[in-house]
Amino acid sequence: MNLHALKIFHIVARSQSVTRASEILRISQPAVTMQIRNLEKELGLVLLAPKGRGIWLTEAGTFLAGHAERLFALEQELETLVDDYRAGRSGTLRIAATYLPANFLLPGWIAAYKRKFAEVRLTQYTGNAQQSLERLERYEADIAVIGGGAAASPRLTRTVLFEDPMWFVVPPDHSYAGQEVGLADLLKETFIMREEGSSTREMLLALCRMSSLAPPDIGVELGGMNEAVRAVAAGYGVLFASASEVREFVERREVVRVRVKHPEVKNPIAIYRREGEPLTGQAAAFVELITGRV
């Protein structure tokens, strides 16, 4: 069936006038009449009959007009749904994130986003920097929010949101708690270390190389910062962590900072996206929201 001709018939049937339909469609009356005649020929039905200066629908015309009304109402609904999806008001948003933003930043950002875009289904995946970036590259996430200077492939673009200072923390009863010590002395202590692929681990190792010092002994290796800082609070080891991850523990004196003279190290918090690809409407709206909050 010629849907263009059906749309013209639909407008004629609704307006009960070929003249009015031509004005709505901005085409000539003869063009409207020709399309209706072609549709009648295609269907083998008479759809319109003259009525004075106007027209009326035959029984076949009334039948077809009712179904056309439903069809084009669905078309309008679909256009609205597509507009909402394009503008990021519906659809899905998948975020890959490392532990710092996942636990300390994204909860507030997501709450603000969902208050504004309640119809968007949002999923967050948490892992280390390597896992998060791989998820983004495999199209399993729309954006990645990464703590640390993770090296991205040329297929990804990185935008830094802000930089968080890195702290050393120890248990409250540690001999270095609240003290200022040299980096070489602190590195002789046993450390709690994040797993391979963690940006925090890589920053500590880079600091050791920069200072021409051997890396510390690893007493425990843990897969998440929450577990690591709680192990220190329980009385074991030294931890190198981003300030945002341990600040609450420090304020409650569950762990204590050790001030160390060393080249300043900051933990960049960045958004990663796929190079050369436009963000989805959902991801673009989320990025716009968080960049306005940092």
Automatic annotation (TrEMBL):
InterPro entries: LysR_HTH_N, LysR_subst-bd, WH-like_DNA-bd_sf, WH_DNA-bd_sf. GO terms for molecular function: DNA-binding transcription factor activity; transcription cis-regulatory region binding. Residues 1-58 form the HTH lysR-type domain. Keywords: DNA-binding, Transcription, Transcription regulation. The keyword Metal-binding does not apply. It comes from the Bacteria. Belongs to the LysR transcriptional regulatory family. This is Transcriptional regulator. The lineage of its organism: Bacteria, Bacillati, Bacillota, Bacilli, Bacillales.
